């Protein structure tokens, strides 16, 4: 499975769970959901309830997916290996192409 497919599968799974969760909490319209998001972002000394967790979860998912994307890119960059065999093969192919072009009397570059 490709990375973007994993990402889209996670987003689809999250959205399905989130919609079911909102239906259980009886959030009926987008304006009420938007106002709930604004209220959830205001600092409060009390512990988060289920409704607060539901309103904050999209933000947490976006942050979590961003952290995952950055960590995945960093890991890929750090573990990238040189392909010496492939470089040698390309050099051989270039030399063969130059010889073939000389045979056919085609002048190209150096």
Automatic annotation (TrEMBL):
The chain crosses the membrane at residues 46-71. The keyword Cell wall biogenesis/degradation does not apply. InterPro entries: DPM3. Its main location: endoplasmic reticulum. It comes from the Eukaryota. Keywords: Endoplasmic reticulum, Membrane, Transmembrane, Transmembrane helix. It is a multi-pass membrane protein. The keyword NAD does not apply. Pathway: Protein modification; protein glycosylation. It is found in: Endoplasmic reticulum membrane. Stabilizer subunit of the dolichol-phosphate mannose (DPM) synthase complex; tethers catalytic subunit to the ER. PANTHER family: DOLICHOL-PHOSPHATE MANNOSYLTRANSFERASE SUBUNIT 3. Belongs to the DPM3 family. Component of the dolichol-phosphate mannose (DPM) synthase complex. This is Dolichol-phosphate mannosyltransferase subunit 3.
């Amino acid at each position: 499975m490709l990375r973007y497919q994993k990402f889209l599968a996670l987003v689809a799974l999250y959205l399905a769970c989130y919609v079911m969760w909102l239906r259980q909490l009886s959030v009926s319209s987008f304006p009420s959901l938007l106002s709930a998001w604004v209220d959830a972002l205001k600092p409060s000394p009390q512990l988060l309830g289920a409704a607060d967790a539901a309103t904050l979860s999209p933000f947490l998912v976006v942050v979590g997916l961003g952290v995952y994307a950055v960590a995945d890119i960093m890991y890929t960059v750090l573990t990238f290996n040189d392909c010496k065999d492939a470089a040698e093969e390309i050099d051989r192919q270039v030399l063969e192409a130059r010889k073939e072009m000389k045979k056919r009397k085609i002048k190209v570059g150096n």
